[in-house]
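Bumping with the actual sequence this time:
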Amino acid sequence: MQACSEIEKIALTHRGYVREVNEDRHYVECLDGQALLMAVVDGMGGGPAGSAAAEIMREALTEYPVDAPNPEQALSDLVVTASEAILEFARNDPALEGMGTTLTATYLSIGTACWAHVGDTRFYVFRQGRLIQVTTDQTMAQLLVEEGRITADEARTHPYGHL
């Protein structure tokens, strides 16, 4: 693996064609010359303060401890801390009840890859010319699929596919 400082990193978001505000955030950071932390954070559109929730989560990633002995635990702890901060932010203003964000974050280093996943921002691996879906959407529709109440095809257009 190349040193991450030598890898060209590009990130782009687009608000889409439905919403007026872009609630997406991204984070790409070379931590120590060898480790790379990347994330896609997607504020829950249509809900209260999705962009604020996404920014709280993205900002939390800047606190990743570069010298963490257990990268997987450090990433998990960071996500939990950010989630608690989002809940606290919403507690201070009743109009923000239900605010939230999705997250898929990946830590890569020589011999190590770990990720955190919350919601329906999917994580894929591209290997040997194939794109492989690693995560499962954490949605009500997916829960219904897992319970055998609807099929995967039905989940694609289910009204709870985004909840």
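The tokens above came from a reply further down the thread. The mean pLDDT is 88.
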